[in-house]
Specification:
Blueprint lengths: L8 E8 L5 H11 L5 E8 L5 H12 L3 E5 L4 H13 L4 E3 L2 H11 L15 H15 L14 E6 L4 H10 L4 E6 L7 H4 L5 E5 L2 H14 L11 H18 L3 E3 L5 H12 L3 H5 L3
Parallel strand pairs: 1-2, 1-3, 3-4, 5-6, 5-7, 7-8
Length: 281
């Protein structure tokens, strides 16, 4: 007899940060993803930098018992948060402490107590903003022939994650343009003659049809067309592969890959790991 599937376990996780909370949120999701059928109900308290703000956070935490994760730097606020959680009989975990303590011992350097130290407006920050502006201006073939400023150009048929991958790369400081392959349409000469690295994105025809049908449903478009015809889509993929092979462009199969994994493969290619990208096809 097949055992009944295990029901999902929901629990409250309170994320308390004296900065934007992005680091803490990413860490919490990464950890929770390691557990099967465990779904966190997130409560985010960002920019907690005063006693009054902390007190309001503790009031909300008391109404939804669970686990408290924090990245509070100020010693007084940390102590108050830990004491409040102890009174509520809730675990209170300083998410970055194990890593920062280990690095401090290895480097023999003291820790900074400056709030939001990782968010300083340095050259990397402005590079990311420039990359984001470039990606938005060169999405889906926009920007005409202006590809020489790109760090990489992504090419693929419609709905192969070109746009989200470009945006993700921008947040990593990589200027990425993306150009769609449209049946019957001529590709820009700047792309075909580009000295900028180009990466082709491929997806299985069956998966692509499914993605496109879902897209049409959201647009309330129910008519059948070559856009979702299996044979037509299969031919699009064949033509794309032939183009990539002729041009010598590395290929990434995004069928079972998240945007983050696709972007990581692109970054690996740009860093010189060309063979790794080709193996993903």
């Amino acid at each position: 007899m097949t055992p009944a599937p295990r029901l999902a376990t929901y629990f409250h996780v309170h994320l308390v940060s004296d900065s934007t909370g992005e680091t803490l949120n990413a860490m919490a999701r990464a950890v929770c993803a390691r557990f099967t059928n465990v779904l966190p109900i997130e409560h985010i308290y960002a920019l907690v930098r005063s006693q009054r703000q902390l007190e309001r956070a503790l009031e909300e935490i008391a109404n939804a018992p669970g686990v408290v994760l924090h990245t509070i730097v100020d010693a007084n606020l940390r102590s108050a948060l830990e004491a409040g959680c102890q009174n509520l009989d809730m675990p209170c975990i300083a998410a970055l402490d194990p890593l920062t303590s280990s690095l401090s011992r290895y480097l023999g350097a003291p820790l900074s107590t400056r709030t939001g130290a990782h968010l300083k407006l340095d050259s990397d920050y402005f590079n990311r903003m420039d990359a984001l502006s470039y990606a938005l201006g060169h999405d889906d073939g926009q920007g005409g022939q202006d590809l020489e400023r790109a760090d990489v150009v992504l090419v693929g048929v419609s709905r192969t994650s070109k746009t989200p991958t470009s945006i993700y790369l921008a947040h990593r400081g990589v200027r990425a343009a993306n150009v769609p392959l449209v049946p019957g349409a001529k590709l820009p000469a700047a792309l075909m003659n580009s000295t900028v690295p180009v990466v082709g994105l491929i997806v299985s025809p069956d998966r692509l049809v499914q993605i496109r049908r879902n897209r049409l449903r959201t647009l309330r478009e129910e008519r059948d067309s070559a856009y979702v015809d299996v044979d037509s889509v299969r031919q699009e993929i064949v033509d794309a592969r032939r183009l990539f092979e002729r041009q010598g462009w590395p290929v990434i199969d995004v069928t079972r890959r998240s945007v983050e994994e696709t972007a990581a493969a692109v970054i690996n290619f740009l860093s010189g790991g060309r063979g790794q990208v080709e193996l993903l096809g």
